[in-house]
Amino acid sequence: MSGNMFMHAECRRSVGETVRLLKASLSEKNIPLFAEFDHKLNAEGVGMDMPGATVLVFGNPAVGTRLMLKAPSLALDLPLRILVREEGGGCRLSCRDACALAREHGLDEHDETVGKLNALLRELLQSVQ
After folding, report:
1. For residues 125 and 91, is the Cβ–Cβ distance under 8 A?
2. What residues are paired with 96 via a beta bridge?
3. From 94's CA, which of 7, 33, 68, 127 has a CA 20 to 30 Å away?
């Protein structure tokens, strides 16, 4: 599930159902959903076709702000995001590994908050499998 820069998971559900489940998981955890980008819908709006692909943007401002105060450039990569895209008969979920983000922005990847972010991302990916 985890790589150097990204974390991935496979799911047998549709993109729409997977997005619905992820949104429910975020809501249960009281984590704000800031934005949802439906790339397939946007492509259709300009007369193009692409497989289903939706990005959810979410996070906890108290946690993110704490990290951005340590590394202001982290604002380029926060809030967190998960991509849900069609693949085969189901979908694939992808997100940036929080430890990789920490390294890229000069933070200690073993920081407790970074570890909690990675744990949250893993939990969200597993919640739809």
Report:
1. no
2. 6
3. 68
Q: Beta 90-96 vs 53-58: how paired, if at all?
A: unpaired
Give the tens place of pLDDT for each residue, 42-100. 999 999 999 999 999 999 999 999 999 999 999 999 999 999 999 988 899 999 999 99
User: DSSP string spanning 59-111?
Assistant: --HHHHHHHHHH-GGGGGT-SEEEEEEEETTEEEEEEE-HHHHHHHTT--TT-
Q: Please give the Cα distance from 127 to 116 (Å, whole number).
A: 16
Q: What is the pLDDT of residue 88?
A: 84
| Residue that the structure tokens 């704490």 belong to | 66
What tokens appear for 62 in the block? 């108290």
pLDDT over 90, % of the chain? 92
Largest CA distance in the chain: 46
SS3 58: strand
In whole angstroms, give the CA distance from residue 129 to residue 119.
Answer: 16
Task: Read off the pLDDT band of 3 (50, 70, 90).
Answer: very low
